[in-house]
Amino acid sequence: MAKKKRDIKIMVGSTVYGFEDQLSQIVAQLQLLGYTVLNSHNGSIKVNPKLSSLENCLKAVEECDLFLGIIRPYYGTGNIGEKNITFEEIKKAIELKKPYWFLVHRDVTFGRLLLGKLRLKNESGLIEKNDDLYKKLGVGVAKNSFFDERTIEIYNYVIENHIPVTLRNGNWAQEFYRLDEMMTYINTQFSDKDFVESIISVKETKDAE
């Protein structure tokens, strides 16, 4: 008798604004591959009406077996105080050592390279932002700027930019620009259920030690 496959819950991070159609297709594809998908836009996370949106999303991270984060050039409107829901989900998934995968939009990686050039040495020889150039580009000065510099902070966190390269582990973030590129990565990572289950089993073994 064939071994019964376990019900695997994968959470797709709560990046939504201007991304609804593609997000729906990603959710549908993961469901087609046999996963139970947790996603706020899809309406498939449990909502405790006594908790904040952030708290409910973090509960979903705790519930999931796998986490798929998507880093886009928009920081999003899901902010509570100084906390961004998408970023907090990512940090929670990493903190809990959930098996995680990340997709990053090309504009974020390009923006990171570009803004790294827009820095000047001050009289003390320290590197600081060239605010005049930032303003000319419309970066970080208006609520609806075409690019939000804070998304680079998320990307740097995911790739462990604060850690020496030789010590980094689990810092892969797959660049994408089009939906088909995302789908290629998703199908490659999640179509082999035996591979995915082996990753989950390793985590469960470590958690039990």
From TrEMBL:
InterPro entries: DUF4062
Boundaries of every DUF4062 domain copy: 9-93
Name used for this protein in its record: DUF4062 domain-containing protein
Upper classification of the organism: Bacteria, Pseudomonadati, Bacteroidota, Flavobacteriia, Flavobacteriales
